[in-house]
Amino acid sequence: MTVQSLVRALGTPVQDASEETFELFAQDLPSQNLGFIDPRAPTLELAIAGRDLTIHQSPSILSSNRAGGTTGAVVWKIAPLFAAWLASTTTTTTTTTTTSPSGTTKTTASTTKRATTKSTRSNTPNNKNNVTSNSYNSDVTNPLFTHSLLTPSSHILELGAGISALPALLLAPHVTRYVLTDQPYVARLVELNLAENLPSSSSSSVSAAGGKNVAKGKGGVKSAKSVGAGVMGGGLRERVVFSPLDWETDAVTPSLTHSPGVSSFDVVVACDCVYNDALVAPFVDTCAAACRLRTVENSAAADSSVDGGDGGEGKRIQEPCVCLVAQQLRDPDVFEAWLERFGTVFDVWRVPREMVGRELGGEAGFVVHLGVLKGEVNLDEEDGEGEGV
């Protein structure tokens, strides 16, 4: 299984940004408001894929006038859905959200073998508990596992991760390295959420990434503090790293992998990062720069093989990097601007409902697109090998 087999299974790529936008927004989309789970609760109790998680967030930062944005300070509705799907190696994902007057919100996303559907709401003046419950089910497996693009040796980069670290918490058992990136203001809560929810083989919860410089901004090179950048193979905690990365000022470099001998990523993910016209260009440019690390690494491997380097054996050519972008459908103009620019550097596919599940399908108000840098896959290949998903 390969990237080629995956995109073949995905079908025809998106041909026109305006048509894709019209098709998605012409649906009868549910009201999601802004899309927060609970912007007032300092703590969320989440159960995802059989794991109970405690996630700390910051309503005060969200409501502040901090320059540079505050949206990463709380958890958005799409986050547990995307995390459960991304880490799904089995068949059914169920998500439940419960809010109580005490300020505690509990969201459950679990995986079972049997799909059922249940949706209930109880939020009346006579309801002392003021409980709102919603259950979501989808009998799908992440096709990146099916097509062997997520493996125990995979390196994942998340852009605009925010404070929750949910995809990292769920994927850590399945990959070698998960790198979370966002602006520095989320680092403290990322550290807290990782420390509380992932076992560590060491007593220290934070370490510097070997003193490496991972981002070069307008003001020069800065050394990034990293969460969980310990020795690999100890505990799940050591597999997850946080590095500050500003799309407008920082450069993506191979040292961002925080893994000796590894200079690129297998998968780049972003969840609910597209909500502002001004961020479209820097976001897409960062996605492209991150994926090009693999292109550069493969080019060097090919040159080494031709030149007889590495004892004449050369380095292995790896699969192209895949970029996954999940988002809530809010503003058609912003969405179309993103897709138009994204499509100039990536071949793009909408992940269909049968692969992404009902709760992340377009009719649910969410959508997932997959991009591969242009020229990395053969769009004309009609060979039938690897059709299964």
From TrEMBL:
What InterPro entries would the database entry show? Methyltransf_16 (IPR019410), SAM-dependent_MTases_sf (IPR029063)
Gene Ontology molecular-function annotations: S-adenosylmethionine-dependent methyltransferase activity
Give Gene Ontology CC terms. Answer: cytosol; protein-containing complex
Q: Where is this region: Disordered?
A: 92-136, 199-223
Domain of life (superkingdom): Eukaryota
Question: In what ranges is there compositional bias, type Low complexity?
Answer: 200-223
- What is the name attached to this protein's record? Diaminohydroxyphosphoribosylamino-pyrimidine deaminase
**Source organism per UniProt:** Staphylotrichum tortipilum
